[in-house]
């Protein structure tokens, strides 16, 4: 028996529910508000946004399942013949109030295409962490959680997907990574000697690791005191997050290009962000220390 | 006698000086700080930034003159053979404190390419205005100033370049213009039955109209009272400005792509910007009124 796309989409819906429930529980006050939307060409989504919770300043946990005739921009980008497509996924970005709690992002997605001559399917996704202040022990913990999920499915996954995240979440014009990375993968399909069922199990396990991992960061850092100066630094780091998402992020560009639902796509942008011309943190400051960690190729497993 | 590129670059340098002097005079307190930079492949620039003046919250008036072997991204984008290039220009973005003073942008530039089989030159540029609150009389005044400069050179310029600005300064994913437009042009060369001298005179006259036009907006609105709510609206409008610059602006993308000086390019971003999920101003509010004006094809000359 092979799983079909409805089963995957249904699981993603349940995932959205579960993650929203867990984040609300950990926040203790904020609630997600839901907007249902429909896509003129077929399908739609549920956008869920939390604003001004106790811990979460702005967070989005979005589900969508869209289908229909493949937009030309998609067939061109994927170098596919024209035909039908189906895409479903969950996308999450959380911006906390406290600069000592990191920004987190997760996306898991499933794609199917059908043209006159062929049909394809694949999974994609990733989880990455963007601390305003890098805490190496926390980064080590985060990467160990991801590695542990990956290793249960394939020993090659963590090293490969960790490198992929380093390369993907990179702000080229700043020569810095967005944060401390995580895992990123795309076009995961049968070519990897894994069945669709096996890959789906991997995606499920990874997605299920999101909430407990982030809850730990919420719990441990929620009472950390911070100054106005640290808040300013958070705004500058968020400015870099905006730069990455608007200049490089393929999902964002793709969504905006293909007339996706703009408000759902741009929920990833923070409430407030800042830019300061030629800002350089003081030598020896915590801020300078953080910049040193925004590099590709750091083995975070060594940190704890 | 034909003018050569050094004469144009020198004039742009003087333009930068003059505009900085006039903006400092009108601001009354803020001063531009200068950074000189060099481009590894040839040439460089003078970046001048004002921060926290009395009127100007953040402003950049940048000069550059760069040359050398044409980067592949440039020859590809311009569909030119590989060869040498020379580019000089002045770029300005001013973000004021007071939400009743508009954001303004100007760019004037000159480009030359030389390959084994041909040489080309052209001027490009534009001025456009982004009010946080659209004041139709002010928009009318702005467009009349631009039309008056254009008409002295060619009766077709204003209508053509006004439409070009409407199309260029357009945030497609929001279905709204960045502001009330202005003029925009590119690839102005001898094909327009104008000599290089004549086109240069047009560019000079346009660039010289920048400072007096913006000074009027500074002077007239500097004492207007505003509330915290109006400041929040300004931050949201700045968010759209960031979206335009990072997602669509060719100069920005090009600069980031070709490893230009990132800090000089991104001086266009405001000190602070905000995003709010699915924000819709109240019916009948000033904010809603402004959104109605952010459309292509408005004849602002009718407003005064």
Tell me about this structure.
2 copies of one chain form a homodimer. With 304 residues, chain A is an alpha+beta fold. The first copy, chain A, has one domain: Coproporphyrinogen III oxidase, aerobic (oxygen-dependent coproporphyrinogen oxidase), CATH 3.40.1500.10. Chain A has helices at residues 5-27, 72-77, 136-151, 157-168, 196-221, 228-248, 250-257, 262-265, 286-292, and strands spanning 33-38, 43-51, 56-69, 84-96, 103-114, 119-130, 170-171, 176-177, 182-188, 272-274. In chain A, the strands form 2 sheets. In chain A, strands 1-2-3-4-5-6-9 form a 7-stranded antiparallel β-sheet. In chain A, helix 1 runs parallel beside helix 5 (196-221) and helix 3 packs antiparallel against helix 5 (196-221). The first copy, chain A, is globular and about 60 Å long. The A-B interface holds A 35, 49, 51, 58, 60, 172-174, 235, 239, 242-243, 246-247, 253, 256, 259, 262-263, 265-267, 269-278 and B 35, 49, 51, 58, 60, 172-174, 235, 239, 242-243, 246-247, 253, 256, 259, 262-263, 265-267, 269-278. Strand 10 of chain A pairs antiparallel with strand 10 (272-274) of chain B.
């Amino acid at each position: 028996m092979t799983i079909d796309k409805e089963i995957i989409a249904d699981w993603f819906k349940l995932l959205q529910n579960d993650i929203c429930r867990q984040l609300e529980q950990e926040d203790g006050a904020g609630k997600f508000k839901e907007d249902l939307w429909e896509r003129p060409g077929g399908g739609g989504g549920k956008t869920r946004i939390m604003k001004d919770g106790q811990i979460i300043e702005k967070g989005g946990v979005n589900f969508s399942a869209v289908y229909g005739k493949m937009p030309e921009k998609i067939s061109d980008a994927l170098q596919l013949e024209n035909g039908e497509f189906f895409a479903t996924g969950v996308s999450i970005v959380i911006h906390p109030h406290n600069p000592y709690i990191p920004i987190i992002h997760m996306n898991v997605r499933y794609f199917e295409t059908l043209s006159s001559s062929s049909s394809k399917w694949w999974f994609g996704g990733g989880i990455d962490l963007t601390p305003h202040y890098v805490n190496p022990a926390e980064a080590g913990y985060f990467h160990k959680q991801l590695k542990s999920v990956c290793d249960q499915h394939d020993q090659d996954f963590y090293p490969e997907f960790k490198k992929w995240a380093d390369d993907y979440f990179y702000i080229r014009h700043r020569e810095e990574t967005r944060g401390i990375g995580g895992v990123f993968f795309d076009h995961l399909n049968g070519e990897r000697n894994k069945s669709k069922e096996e890959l789906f199990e991997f995606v499920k396990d990874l997605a299920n690791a999101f909430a407990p991992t982030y809850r730990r960061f919420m719990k441990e850092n929620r009472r950390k005191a911070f100054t106005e100066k640290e808040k300013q630094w958070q705004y500058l780091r968020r400015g870099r997050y905006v730069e990455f998402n608007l200049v490089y992020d393929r999902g964002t560009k793709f969504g905006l290009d293909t007339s996706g639902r703009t408000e759902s796509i741009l929920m990833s942008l923070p409430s407030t962000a800042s830019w300061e011309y030629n800002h350089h943190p003081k030598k020896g400051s915590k801020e300078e220390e953080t910049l040193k960690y925004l590099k590709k190729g750091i083995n975070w497993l060594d940190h704890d």
